[in-house]
Specification:
Shape: globular
Largest sheet: 2 strands, antiparallel
Order of helices and strands: HHHHEEHHH
Number of strands: 2
Radius of gyration: 16 Å
Structural class: mainly alpha
Strand order of the largest sheet: 1-2
């Protein structure tokens, strides 16, 4: 696997892993936030919330399990693109919907969340394009790529906090 794909994979595993833990910690609150965005009705919110957590968990498993990385990038691309579209719709409607993407205190969805999700989609596509058939790994390059991916993931997760620092 290309070094760039390793970095993208690590970033996605960290971002989706933190998202799964944050949502699973209070799944009912995440489900209510979906209804608040007016994207999902009350009757379907629990199913959609569970589906999001399952899909994000599958991304992590596929990216970590040997021989399934390409499928992980495909699923990460699809999930992040769908989430980007949902955030874009909520922001365009100016719906005061809380973002409970990573757990923690809710913050209203804003354009910064759209940018974060678009970047995540880009990382997914980049990993998909560069993560073709595996080649013998070069350990030092993979470690550096993995660390870079982890840093990128943390920046994406904490984008709200970073934005408040620079205001």
């Amino acid at each position: 696997m290309d070094v760039l794909a390793v970095g993208c994979g690590v970033a996605l595993v960290v971002v989706f892993g933190v998202a799964v833990v944050g949502k699973a910690r209070d799944l009912p609150a995440f489900a209510r936030s979906l209804e608040g965005s007016r994207l999902v009705g009350r009757r379907r919110r629990a199913w959609v919330a569970g589906g999001v957590v399952v899909a994000e968990s599958a991304v992590v498993v596929l990216l970590v399990a040997p021989g399934t990385t390409w499928y992980g990038f495909v699923l990460a691309t699809a999930v992040s693109a769908i989430l980007t579209g949902a955030v874009a719709l909520a922001v365009a409607r100016r719906t005061p919907a809380p973002c409970l993407c990573f757990g923690g205190p809710p913050r209203d969805l804003e354009p910064v969340h759209l940018v974060r999700n678009a970047l995540l989609t880009g990382v997914s596509v980049l990993g998909l394009v560069t993560g073709g058939p595996p080649v013998p790994p070069v350990m030092a390059q993979n470690v550096v790529a993995g660390l870079a991916g982890a840093v990128a993931a943390l920046l994406l997760i904490k984008i709200d906090d970073l934005r408040s620092v620079f205001r």
